[in-house]
Structures are given as C-alpha cells and as structure tokens.
Amino acid sequence: xxxxxxxxxxxxxxxxxxxxxxxxxxxxxxxxxxxxxxxxxxxxxxxxxxxxxxxxxxxxxxxxxxxxxxxxxxxxxxxxxxxxxxxxxxxxxxxxxxxxxxxxxxxxxxxxxxxxxxxxxxxxxxxxxxxxxxxxxxxxxxxxxxxxxxxxxxxxxxxxxxxxxxxxxxxxxxxxxxxxxxxxxxxxxxxxxxxxxxxxxxxxxxxxxxxxxxxxxxxxxxxxxxxxxxxxxxxxxxxx
Length: 240
Ligand code: SF4
Ligand code: SF4
Known about the structure:
Layout: H1 17-24, H2 32-36, H3 39-42, H4 45-51, E1 75-77, H5 92-96, E2 102-108, E3 127-135, H6 144-148, E4 154-156, E5 171-173, H7 174-177, H8 198-202, H9 211-237
Antiparallel strand pairs: 1-4, 2-3, 3-5
Bound molecules: iron/sulfur cluster (2 copies).
C-alpha cells in the first residue's frame, strides 16, 4: 500500500524516499566469524582477503595492453589522399582547447612558381597551418580540439607513451604530428589535382596523386638538386 504519511511543511519539496528506505533497512549484525574476532583484528579482513587473491602483474613496457578503440592518445594531423594537408590553419582547435595547449599560425597557399619566389601549396584551400604545435605538458586529452576541427584534419591516435625527462621534448611540432605519407601520396608543397576545387577533396573525388602532380614534384626536386649542386660547386671554387 502506498505511503500516505503527510509531509511536514518544513520538508516540502525534499525527497524523503532515501531516508525512509534507510529507516526500513535493518542494521547488519556480525556473523559467527565476526563475533569471534575483536573489532581491531576484523579490520584486517580486507588485507587477508587480498593476500590470497591471484596476483595480476602487467609486464609493461614489454607487453603493452591494447587501448580502447576510441582512446584519446597523441594527436595526428591528417592528409588528403594526394598528400596535401587537411589543416587549413583556422585555429578553431586552439580556441576550443581549455588548457591552451595548441599553437597554430596559418599562412596563405601560394601558387606562384617556386622559381619566381612562390612558397607553394600545402593544402587544397586558401590557407594552411604553417606552424602547428601541441604542448603535451598542458594537454588533458579531452578531445575538444578534434571536435572543433571543421576539416577532420586533427584526430587522436591510440599512442599513449608520452613521457620524457625533457620538457621541451613534450612540445610536439607540425613535422611530428603530421601523418606519414601513405602509398599514392606526395609530400607538399605541390599543386591540387588539376580541374578540381577544394570542395571536391571533401567529396571524395581524389584518391591518389595524379601523374601531373608527380611530374610537377619531380621537376621541382630536380631543380632544387641542380641549384644545390651549383651552390656547392661555387663554394668549392672560392679561394681560401
Ligand atoms: S585534447 Fe583537449 S587539452 Fe589536449 S589539445 Fe585538445 S582540446 Fe587541448
Ligand atoms: S587542425 Fe583543424 S581546427 Fe586546427 S587549425 Fe587545422 S583545420 Fe583548423
């Protein structure tokens, strides 16, 4: 039958269900074992119980336990399938970070030919992340930065071994955070896939670097190697 006890005015609005449940629960009485031990020794019950438990030792770092699938570990800056970077240098991740652990400096992509002083194209959009740093002395691995990223450039990996005896080594720079080049990718800077726009990259129309992009990169590397060789021979010809 439902409890029809009237609630006094002073308790109006207060949830009395827990107090009533506690009053209805009988106080546990000590069993025969508990009766035969003084209370001071009975306190060791947990200790004795633990002594006979199976010992579980993690053999870290020799054996590493796999993390949960969506574990929040070290960050990664992702690439498009042709190798261009997904980061557009918008700084939203840095603004979202509650620990002020991210530093981003964006810059304009530059399609001016390198021989005319162009710095090159690193992402399909207008801008790219020229400087990118995450300070792992500050990061609390909350994942707010990856939620804020509009291009899915920033994600978190399962890597968790982030300890060092040098504070400077725990400030990761862009070259450490960038995803390694996969098959079919070319290291930027290089042009976008010919005839495509930035949005086409997000619509999955690019699946690897094209032959035009490969030729462009080969020519660029050959020109850089020739310039380096010319510099070296000029230095070698100088009188001491
Ligand atoms: S995981 Fe959290 S604390 Fe770490 S960089 Fe991202 S937003 Fe900042
Ligand atoms: S990682 Fe994402 S949110 Fe951060 S600057 Fe790059 S594009 Fe913007």
